[in-house]
Write a structure and sequence with these properties.
Chains A, B: It catalyses: tRNA(His) + L-histidine + ATP = L-histidyl-tRNA(His) + AMP + diphosphate + H(+). 2 copies of one chain form a homodimer. The first copy, chain A, has 450 residues and is of the alpha+beta class. Chain A folds into 2 domains: 319 residues, 2-Layer Sandwich (BirA Bifunctional Protein, domain 2), CATH 3.30.930.10; 95 residues, Rossmann fold (3-Layer(aba) Sandwich), CATH 3.40.50. The first copy, chain A, is 43% helix and 18% strand. Chain A contains 17 helices and 16 strands. Chain A is elongated, with a radius of gyration of 28 Å. The relative contact order of chain A is 0.10. At the A-B interface, α1, β1, β2, α4 and β5 of A face α1, β1, β2, α4 and β5 of B.
């Protein structure tokens, strides 16, 4: 038909994005790595619906998440919303199923969430969260394992210069209790949070002004933030600071136990450090808290954070469900990996490319491809008998590593050429005997001995 | 607090469901298998937004999908909808990015879709699709590869008694062209579709009634449905039937080429059969079409279907984008695997369970766990020092395979006990020398030589 029809403009909504292969492949790999590490500690996968009754989602979040929630009336006139995190659905899920699941319950949940945020801040309205939690135990073993999972995860992703920073909310609570500042803890923490930005003097002034602290009290709180040194030195200083507060002593005791255990499990001290300056989610966390920073890019903030909470699902059940968990910041990590050159620019998951010369050789191409797939390679056969140069340009643009060039002459001799697409080097390989020589040649190019 | 607060009832929306670990683990495994096979043929992953402008989604689907679509006004007063399949988003995606992507473009897309369907039919309103497509080439190589992917996928999932049934829309179109019945093809096909149910005589009558076919024409069409035998016999019969119709001859030629090539690639004839009775998506497919049936459970219908189309994205671009693809029916396959006893009843991804005796041995438990994880096992350490019987009951209920029992006495001798949780058999293993003996003992239980 030559009549011009009116086209619909192909476009995505503001704050949403397509993932093309070059972006999707590292995402998939990162998710697979997280899954593998979570599973290696016995965390099991779950999933929950994207849509929930609005009342389930509304109560638990902040005013901000309530406002940002995608909410509408469904076909049955129900008031529904799209999940904005994985914590609220976990709470609902646990309240509903914990009898069947039993405790301790260790789960991971890797799924998309939605927030109608202001995109001016460079945020997306659709993003993925990657959480793991241990529910139904107060044992410090769960805290220790959470630290180990974060540690193993960062290593498995390919980082080594990172630090898991650990603190315990009870240390600060104990100190405030000792100083009789518990009732003003929100104001104290708000002031303390500004330390790096405005300095000790101004923070002390703010504490006196907004929290009604005395100069002496403010100085005591600021002492906490000055604590540094080796793990042993920090623990000793904390011992002195919280002495007399049951809560504070318990917090320091847990930090001592956690650092000793991770050291015993082989985590070097520089990768797991006590940092009394981290506070996180004031209303939610009650014990151990974690943040994780990249040595090469500390400025992007924590890439894996979490902590212990007393009661996960109190909105939905009277059963007390203590737990601990953390969340991997997928998008932030991917941005960091990109910036650090840790992401290969490829648009194909296949390493091996087979150009297509003529139709009569198709059975051979298919046989070579099948043999190589059985040997564990990902193989693409070009579908059209275009000029070799054109086919190789396609292969190069996608990021294939090796081309198996097999024209009539080569096939007649039961041979092919193995072309390293990076160096351009070409060698000949026999196809006889299960193509062992070809497989060895490809392996040589893909995994060269250093 | 002892005051009773009002709880929110923890529940999911009608037509939605939670995936608990026992259901989620086989799902994840199936998805991983699909991903692995797709990648082995050079298909790359993509993702698209859950929410699209309603105008993008509305035009392409049927009246039914339009009506079932979750549609609402977003925070910016935009008319938006949740995707109800992955084909419409692919068309929009291809129209938008094909210049950057280049052709041929091979993608897989494994993602959730939503339809506000009538749940009385046992359908869910949220489910996952698992599609792969090759876009931008008319080459028969893409058809052949699609057949091979389906074949490899079914084998990789663990089926061998399956049949990929293949047909070509041009065969039937050619026959109708030859019989001058093209204009009534919809009515002809509708009648033909009832063959198994109402028999040849009534079908012939219906063709004459609704499609204005003569008795002779109806008999000719019915001849097609009678064709059977070996691949060669079917192809010869088809040759005779469509002789003189260019379109029909082309269709038979493609079937001949496809079956010859898959045979050359090692696919046994019983696993890929021509079946002239399959028709699929009358308005959409234009060439090769596929359906896949399980030998043990043919009644559940096709578990992997697809075909070739002439023009994917004509709603959004004037660029012609021919392609071919198929979709794995995840939920149907999982139901079949469940029914055939192919799914293990477990709720943990870990094989190895370490009971916890006392706190002073915690460093050793952590070391054993770390050593076993480094050896590739998934290991869970119980977090509380409960009675051994209680811990083993927990391990048994979750489906762990092996327990590593290490009390004070064993650890003092640098030993542990390896308990096969299925048989109850227990052996002793040394922890010395990187715990080689322990690793061998566990491997023995997990992968016994038959």
């Amino acid at each position: 038909m030559s009549s011009k029809k009116k086209l619909i403009q192909p476009r995505t909504l503001k704050g949403f994005r397509d993932y093309l292969p070059d972006v999707m492949m590292p995402r998939e790999e990162l998710i697979n790595t997280a899954r593998r590490v979570y599973r290696s500690y016995g965390f099991a996968p779950i999933d929950t619906p994207t849509l929930e009754y609005a009342e389930i989602l509304l109560g638990k979040g902040s005013d901000e998440t309530d406002r940002q929630m995608y909410r509408f009336e469904d076909h049955g006139k129900r008031d529904v919303g799209m999940r904005f995190d994985l914590t609220v659905p976990l709470a609902r899920f646990a309240a509903q199923h914990i009898g069947e699941l039993g405790t301790p319950f260790k789960r991971y949940h890797i799924a998309t969430v939605w927030r109608g945020e202001n995109t001016q801040r460079g945020r997306y309205r659709e993003f993925m969260q990657c959480d793991f939690d241990t529910i139904g135990t107060k044992s410090i073993v769960a805290d220790i394992e959470t630290a180990l999972v974060i540690h193993d995860l960062m290593l498995a992703i390919g980082f080594d210069g990172f630090t898991v920073r650990v603190n315990n909310r009870q240390v600060l609570s104990g100190l405030l209790e000792k100083l009789q500042l518990v009732e003003n803890s929100t104001e104290i923490l708000r002031a303390l949070d500004k330390l790096a930005k405005i300095g000790a003097e101004k923070v002390a002034a703010e504490m006196q002004e907004t929290a009604g602290a005395s100069a002496e009290q403010a100085a005591q709180v600021l002492k906490l933030a000055e604590i540094g040194g080796s793990t042993d030195e920090i623990l000793s200083a904390l011992d002195r600071l919280v002495a007399g507060s049951e809560q504070g002593e318990m917090g320091v005791g847990q930090l001592r136990e956690l650092t000793a255990a991770t050291a015993a499990a082989g985590v070097p001290a520089e990768r797991l450090q006590i940092d009394v300056s981290i506070a996180r989610g004031l209303d939610y966390y009650t014990g151990t808290i974690f943040e994780t920073f990249l040595g090469e890019l500390p400025g992007i903030g924590s890439v894996c954070s979490g902590g212990r909470y007393n009661d996960l699902a109190s909105l939905y059940t009277n059963q007390e469900l203590p737990g601990i968990g953390a969340s991997l910041g997928l998008d932030r990590l991917l941005a960091a990996m990109e910036e650090l050159g840790k992401i290969e620019a490829r648009t194909t998951p296949a390493e091996v490319f087979i150009p297509y010369f003529d139709q009569t050789s198709l059975p051979q191409y298919l046989q070579i491809a099948a043999t190589l797939r059985a040997a564990g390679f990902n193989v693409e056969l070009y579908p059209d008998a275009k000029k070799l140069g054109q086919q190789l340009k396609y292969a190069d643009r996608r990021g294939f590593k090796v081309a198996i060039v097999a024209g009539d002459r080569e096939l007649a001799e039961n041979k092919c050429q193995v072309k390293d697409l990076k160096t351009g080097d070409t060698t000949e390989a026999s196809l006889a005997g299960g193509a062992k020589e070809l497989i060895a040649g490809i392996s040589q190019i893909l995994r060269p001995t250093a």
